[in-house]
Amino acid sequence: MKYIDLNDKNLKELQELLKEKKVLIFKLRSKLKTMQLTNPNEIKEARRDVARIKTAISALQNNK
To answer: What pTM does this model have?
Structure first.
């Protein structure tokens, strides 16, 4: 996911996307602990997506 993709979304959509990504991170970490995760880089990418979403939310709130 790129930051450009998040620019056209409104605040509610971004908050829902953030919630989904946080749930995904939780599931990925659970899989990592039980040795079921094949690609540990997925956690890193999900964390970066969360950071991008938080940045977009912050930018929207500052523009108001």
So the answer is: 0.90
